[in-house]
Amino acid sequence: MSTTESTPNTTEEPWHGGAEGLESFTLRLRRYDPESGKAPYFEEFVVEMEPHRSVLDAILTAKNDEDGSIGIRCSCRAAICGSCGTRINDKPGLACHTHLSDALARSKDGKITVEPMGNMPVIKDLIVDMDAVHWKKQQRVTPWLLPAEPLPEKEHIVPREAMVDVTQSMACIQCGACVSDCLSMEVDPLFIGPAALAKAYRFVGDPRDDKHAQRLDDLANDPHGIYDCTHCFKCIEACPKGVAPMNQIMRLRRIASADHSIEDVNDGSRHEHALVNHVKKWGTLNEAQLVPDSKGGKFHPRTAKEMVASLSVIATALLRRKVTPKSALIHHKNPNQSEIKRIYQEIGAREERLELNLYITQPDEPEAPDDQDASHEAQVKTTGDQSAVNKPVTNREA
Amino acid sequence: MPAHDVLIIGAGLAGQRAALAAADAGASVAILSKVHPVRSHSVAAAGGINAAINPDDDWRSHAFDTVKGSDYLGDQDAIEIMCSEAPGEIMHLEHIGVTFHRNDTGHLDLRAFGGASMKRTAYVADITGQAILHVLYEQLMKYSDRVDRYEEWFNTSLLKDDSGRCVGCVARNIRTGEMRTFNAKSTILATGGVGQAFKPTTNGLICTGDGMSLAYRAGARLMDMEMIQYHPTTMTANGFLITEGARGEGAHLLNAAGERFMEKDAPNKMELASRDVVSRAEQREINEGRGTGPLKDSVLLDVTVVPKNRVLEALREIVNLGRDFAGIDITKEPIPVRPGQHYTMGGVKTDVNGETDVPGLYAAGEVACVSVHGGNRLGANSLLDTLIFGKRSGQHAAAVAGEMQMPKVSDAQLRDDTRHIQDIINRPKTGRRISEIKEELGVSMNQYCAVFRDEEGMTKGKEIVTRLQEEAKTAYIDDAGTVFNQDVLGALELGFMLDCSEAIVTAALERKESRGAHSRTDYTERNDEDWLFHLTVSQDGEGADAPAKLDKAPITFTQWEPMERTY
Question: Using CB atoms and an 8 Å cut-off, which of residues 184-203 of chain A contact chain B?
Answer without folding.
Answer: 202
